[in-house]
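Regression test case RT-17, inverse folding.

Input:
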């Protein structure tokens, strides 16, 4: 009788720890979707037809690097004539150094819906 009870308790404990593991696994899988994850500091990923993060904040004098993770070609083009990457294929990178504080809006010249902003402090 007691042995059976212990086994039952053990089964319950194992089931509970399994479901806990499952919960954390599910959470991890959710946090890591089909994207390439969070870009490193001062980097923007061009992915799934958008700039990630869409707003990036850096200090004056720092360089921002964009990487195209899409198979579609994109550009990183400032709204004012300041920088223009030209056509970027898959895995292409583009870097620009921002010497002066300000807010710089940019877009992809191929896809008007793709916009981003660099805030330089
Ligand atoms: Cu584009």
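Golden output:
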């Amino acid at each position: 009788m007691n042995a059976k009870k212990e086994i039952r308790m053990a089964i319950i404990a194992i089931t509970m720890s399994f479901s806990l593991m499952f919960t954390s696994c599910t959470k991890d899988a959710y946090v890591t979707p089909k994207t390439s994850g969070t870009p490193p500091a001062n980097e923007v990923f061009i992915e799934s037809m958008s700039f990630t993060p869409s707003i990036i904040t850096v200090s004056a004098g720092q360089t921002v690097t964009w990487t195209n993770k899409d198979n579609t070609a994109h550009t990183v083009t400032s709204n004012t004539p300041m920088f223009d990457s030209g056509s970027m294929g898959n895995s292409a990178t583009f870097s620009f150094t921002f010497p002066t504080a300000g807010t710089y809006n940019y877009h992809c010249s191929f896809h008007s819906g793709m916009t981003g902003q660099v805030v330089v402090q």
